[in-house]
Amino acid sequence: MNGTLRVVVADDHTLVREGMVRVLEQGGVDVLGTAATADGLLGQARAYRPDVVVTDLHMPPGDGRDGMWAARELRRGSPACAVVVVSQYLEEEFALELVEAGPTGVGYLLKQKIAVADTLLDAVRRVAAGGTALDPDVISGLVRRGRDEGPLGTLTAREREVLTLMAEGHSNAGIAARLFITVPAVERHVTGIFAKLGLGGPGGGRHRRVQAVLHYLRSTCS
């Protein structure tokens, strides 16, 4: 995406909200507005039409209207608006729900992880570009839940590691660097993973691979 990223931030905790704003602004992101409620978030997003919305999962007013509700409404009305949901706890079901409408331009991060500035910035940039930024613990949990049944049970330990990093959105080069193996070795693992999961060849770029893996995880682990 060209130009400065435009973001709206929502969290009912003032210190957390201001902390995220500070991190984003220091990273060169233009924070257009902030909100402390789900209703306020929708109003800000509809007024400013940002590239990305960063929102807390659980926010007032409640009774079915929280950060996840706002994220669903935004995705339904403005599919081009990317969404990063942050949560204090690991809630895999909400992560699966977030990608239900399409596993691109969405992120789900744990709040304790975004204390590292690069984590939030990387997530915002990744989803703005149409990618996915799911917390590694969420993906790992999904892989663990499904690995003993069906095709996931046929993956080797290394293939599960590669699958986890693929689902997080890492490129083959990024996976190789994290696992201290060569890019050709990663490519062989990717080929094996797609063959075992019945997803066809690994071509088509990072986004297509992530979409396929997330669709598979969603169908087997929900």
TrEMBL record:
Pfam families: GerE, Response_reg
Response regulatory domain boundaries: 6-128
Domain HTH luxR-type: 148-220
Gene source species: Paractinoplanes deccanensis
Name used for this protein in its record: DNA-binding response regulator
InterPro entries hit by this protein: CheY-like_superfamily, NreC/VraR/RcsB-like_REC, Sig_transdc_resp-reg_C-effctor, Sig_transdc_resp-reg_receiver, Tscrpt_reg_LuxR_C, WalR-like
Any coiled-coil regions, as ranges: none
Keywords: DNA-binding, Phosphoprotein, Transcription, Transcription regulation
GO molecular function: DNA binding
Sites of 4-aspartylphosphate modification: 56
